[in-house]
Amino acid sequence: MFAEFVDGPFWYFSVTVFVVGVVWRFLAVLRAGRRPDLSVARASAVVGAIRTNLSRFLPRREIAGRIRLPVVAGYMFHLGLFALLLFAAPHVDFIKERITGFGWTPMPHWAFILASEFAFIGLLILWLHRVLNPVTRLLSRADDHIAAILTFVVMLTGCLALFQSFEGLRVLHLFLAELLLVYFPFSNLMHALMFVPSRGYTGAMLGRRGIHA
Amino acid sequence: MSERFEQGLSTLRKQMDARVVSYLSSCVHCGICAEACLFYTETRDPRYTPIYKVEPLRRLWSREYSFWGKLASSVGLGESLTEQDFADWEELVYDGCTMCSRCSMVCPVGIDIAYMIRKVKEGLAAAGYSPDDLKGAAKRAVEIGSPMGVTLATLQATIKVQEKECGIPIPLDREGADYLCLLSSGEITGFPEFIGSIARIFKAAGISWTISSEYFEATNTGVQLGNSAIAAELIGRVVNAAEKLKVKYVISPECGHAYTTIRWDAPNIIGRPLPFKVVHILELLDQLRRDGRLKTSGTTGERLTYHDPCNISRRGGVVREPRNLLNQVASDFVEMSDHGAMNWCCGGGGGVSTLERARDLRTKVFNVKKRQIDELNVETVVTACSNCRHTWEDGLEAYGMEEGVELVGLTELVARYLVENETPTAGQ
C-alpha cells in the first residue's frame, strides 16, 4: 500500500511540486524587476554573465589557500552526488522508465562505491564545518541543516537499498527523495539552479565595466 | 513601531529587485566571503562576515517574500526585523565595511554582496541609523558643496598657489572646453599638487579643460551614506555644471568612489543617461600616452608599488592603465601579492575614513596593507585616490612606518617626469 503510494501518486505529486515550485521561485526573481543599466558599457554584459557563470566553479587563486577545506569538501560532495544521481545503475533505469524513455551506460560498481564515499565524506565535512566554524555557525539557519540531513538520509537509504537489494529500503529511498523534491523549491537547495541568474547578474554588471570575474 | 523605523522598512522593501531576490535565493551560507574581507581576516570576528552584514535585508526577504517566512508570520511565528536590528547593524555596515566588494569577487554563487550592503545602507539611513559623521558630511556636501566644507574661495586660493608653482594658468569656468575636471575635497585640502600636475600635463598634451566654480566636488556622500536623494542631488549639480560649460567629457580625479559613482552609478541614480562621457584621470593619461601626447623622460629608480583603489580597479575596471603609466616612469615597480581586481582595501573606503569612532578598527584592518608592504620592502607606495592616501598616511603612522614609506599620487608621479615643450622637467 505504502509502496504503491510512493511509486504512484506521491511521485507525481512531488515532481509537480518541484516543477511548479522552481518555476514560481524563478518568476519571483523576474517579478521583482530590474531597471536597465543606463551607464555606457565598456564591454559586453552577456560575455561577462557567461564568464562569471563559468569562472565561479573554481575558487580565485588569491583566496584558494584560505578556503581549502570547504572547497575540497564541496567538490567531493557535489561531484559524488551528481555521479550517483545520473550514473548509478538503478537511477539510469528509473530515469529511462519514468522520465526520458531512454537510458545510458551506468557506472561500474567500483565507481559507485567511490562516488558514494566522495559524496558522504564531502557532505559530512561540509556539515561539520557548518557547525564547528564560527562564521558558518553564525550564518546557518534551520533550513541549512534540514537540507543537509535530508540529502544525507536520501543518499544513505539509496546506498543501503542497492547493497541490501531490499524492496523496503528502495521504497524508503524513493519516499525520501520525493520529500527532497517537495522541500527543494522552498529551501536554499534552490541554489542548485538559482546560482545561474545570481552569477549572471553580477557577471553582467562586472562585464559591462570590463572587469574579469 | 516608530515612524522612522517604518520609513526604514519601507525603503528596504523598495530595494528588493531581481538581483537581490536571486542573491538571497542562492546563498548557501558557506562563509567563503569572510575570508575575502579585511574586517574579518584582521579581527576574526564572525560578525564582520560580509553576507552577515546584509542580514536586515535577508530577514525582511525571509519574512515577507519567502514561503516559510510568510507561512510563519501568518501564524505569528518566525523572525522579524526589529528596530534593535537596525541599531545593531549600523556599526557593522558603516564602520565594518568599505564596500570594497572583494567579497563579491569570491562568492561561489556569484552574489554581489557590496550591491546589497549599499541597499541595506538605504534602509538604515532612512530609519535614522547612520553615523553622525557621515550625516554631517552629507549635510555639508548639500549646503556648502563639499563634504569637508571646502568653499569656492578655498579652491580659488589653492588654484592661485598652484598657478604660481607651475607657472600655468588654471582655467576656471571656460565655456566650450572639452573636459570638465572634478576634484575631491581631499585633493584640494590635502594634495593640491594634483591640480598643478594636471595643469602641466594638459598643457603639454594640448588638452582643452576647465574647472567649474559652480560645482567642483567629485565625491558623493549620498552614496556613502546610502541616501539616493542626496546622491541624485549631487550628481545633478555635476550634470548642470557640465551642461552649462558645454563640455564633452567629465574627468573623475584621483578618488575611488567618485569614479564609480559618476561613471557607473550616476545615470542609474538620476534615471537618465549622462549628457557627457566620463573618463577617469588615469584612463585619460594612458590614452594620451598611447597617442604620443603625454611624453615623459627618465624613470625613478626607487622601489615602488601601486595600491589599487577598490572603486577604480575592482569596481571601476581601471586596472591596466595605472600599470602602463607606472612602467613608463618607474624602473623598479613591483606588485603587491594581491593586486588589481583582487587588491586588499586600505580600510578607508565607503565613508569609513569619515568616521572618527571607527579609527581603531580602521587601524587594525590596515594591518593587511602593512603585511603587503613588509613583503615587498618598498620605499614608495603610489596610489590614485586621495581618500586612500589619507587612510594610508594614518595607517603608516599608526604602525610607525611613516618615515620609511613615501606616498605619492600617480598623476603627480607622472608629472614629475613630464616632457614640457620637449624640455625634460626637473623630476629626472
Provide an overview of this structure:
The complex is a heterodimer of chains A (213) and B (428). Chain A has 213 residues and is mainly alpha-helical. Chain A has one domain (2-32, 67-208): Transmembrane di-heme cytochromes, Chain C (Fumarate Reductase Cytochrome B subunit, Up-down Bundle). Chain A has helices at residues 2-7, 9-32, 45-55, 61-64, 68-87, 89-100, 109-132, 134-139, 142-164, 167-183, 191-208. The longest helix of chain A has 24 residues, at 9-32. Chain B has 428 residues and is of the alpha/beta class. In chain B, the strands form 3 sheets. In chain B, strands 2-1-3-4 form a 4-stranded parallel β-sheet. A 4-stranded parallel β-sheet of chain B has the order 6-5-7-8, sandwiched between helices. Chain B has a two-stranded antiparallel ribbon with strand order 9-10. Chain B is globular and about 80 Å long. The relative contact order of chain B is 0.11. The interface between A and B is large, with 57 and 60 residues.
How widely separated are the two ends of chain A? 53 Å
Topology as H/E string of chain A? HHHHHHHHHHH
Given as residue ranges, the uncertain stretches of chain A (5+ residues, pLDDT < 50) are: none
Sheet with the most strands, sense and barrel status of chain A: none
The number of E-state strands of chain A comes to: 0
Strand fraction band of chain B?
5-15%
How many helical elements of chain A? 11
Question: Class by helix and strand content of chain A?
Answer: mainly alpha
The main sheet of chain B orders its strands as 2-1-3-4
SSE order of chain B, one letter for each helix or strand = HHHHHHHHHEHHEHHEHEHEHEHHEHEHEE
